[in-house]
Amino acid sequence: MDLTYFRTFREVARRKSFTKAAEELGYAQSSITMQIQKLEREYGVPLFERFGRQLRLTSPGESLLKLAVQMLDLYDQSKEMVASQVTGTLTIGTINSLAAYYLPPYLQALKQLYPGLNIQLYPDSEASLMTKVREGDYDLGLLLDRYPAEPLLTCTKIKEEPLLLVAPLTHPLTQLDRIELSDLQQTEFIVTEESCIYRGMFEKLLKDHAIPLQIGFELGNLEAIKQCVMNGLGIALLPRIVVQSELEQKRLVSLPFSHEDLKLDIQLLLHPKKWISQPLQTFIQLLTNNEEDK
């Protein structure tokens, strides 16, 4: 069986779409369909099933995906070891804030070192990200969490990332020299989605002190949250990297608030048995060495 079929199968499973997989791989959709059908005939089982518009793996499909990831990883490893190649694919799972505001300079540096490397960056939820690192779908994961985020994975702390309460320049809380939790009683917040780790931490902190969280808007887009804050619709708790530019430009203000229960670390996650390719090793060094120098 041609390894191309397994790459196609892996991409369809990642994208949950024949159309998106075809766009990513540069094939016609009919070619994607033909390759998956050939795999299904080869194994004698359906690999995907549809629920409405949603495409998902069947139970045999999930089993085959784990084996396909291992086979493709071993193939890439053999190419690099035998031919000293530094091409191939590096698959990174991360969260939206790191994908948008932290990783781009490092990805640019890696691409300059390895022009032939195909870098795939997948913004994902934290739970899904850790699962996919464990199962080999991602070569590595990057997230914000308390250290260590997952004891079954190799976690490397890159840096501490402060969480800031940000407000519009004219917000009443900007007049205080120090903000206590009690000062947030009647404050309206603009929050991220429920699955967000720092939203959960903040909600727990307020609940433990019997302070209700007044939610004005719940948004899944960080740029939208910042725009709403700048337009006076509430305040928000966000990582510093997300609002650094707006703070420097004085479009937002960081409120004088901090709490020991609101601390997160940017962490790099690897499977303990993950084969470390040359590009992956370089990327890890770029992340860790650069932060040590700061």
Task: Describe this structure in a few short sentences.
With 294 residues, this protein is α/β, with parallel strands linked by helices. It contains 11 helices and 11 strands. It is 45% helix and 21% strand.
Structure notes:
The protein has 294 residues and is of the alpha/beta class. Helix content is 45%, strand content 21%. It contains 11 helices and 11 strands. It has helices at residues 3-15, 18-25, 29-43, 59-83, 96-101, 104-113, 126-135, 197-208, 222-230, 240-248, 278-293, and strands at residues 48-51, 54-57, 89-94, 118-123, 140-145, 154-167, 188-191, 214-218, 236-239, 253-254, 263-270. The strands form 3 sheets. Strands 3, 4, 5, 6, 9, 10 and 11 form a 7-stranded mixed beta sheet that branches. A two-stranded antiparallel ribbon has the order 1-2. Strands 7-8 form a two-stranded parallel ribbon. Helix 1 crosses helix 3 and helix 2 (18-25) packs across helix 3 (29-43). The longest helix has 25 residues, at 59-83. The model has no long low-confidence stretch (mean pLDDT 91).
Which terms summarize this structure?
11 helices, seven-stranded mixed beta sheet, alpha/beta, two-stranded antiparallel ribbon, 294 residues, elongated, 45% helix, single chain
Q: What percentage of residues falls in helices of 4 or more residues?
A: 40-55%
Query: What gross morphology would you assign?
Result: elongated
Main sheet?
7 strands, mixed
Cα-based radius of gyration, to the nearest Å: 22 Å
Task: Tell me the β content.
Answer: 15-25%
Order of SSEs, N→C? HHHEEHEHHEHEEEHEHEHEEH
Unreliable runs: none
Number of strands: 11
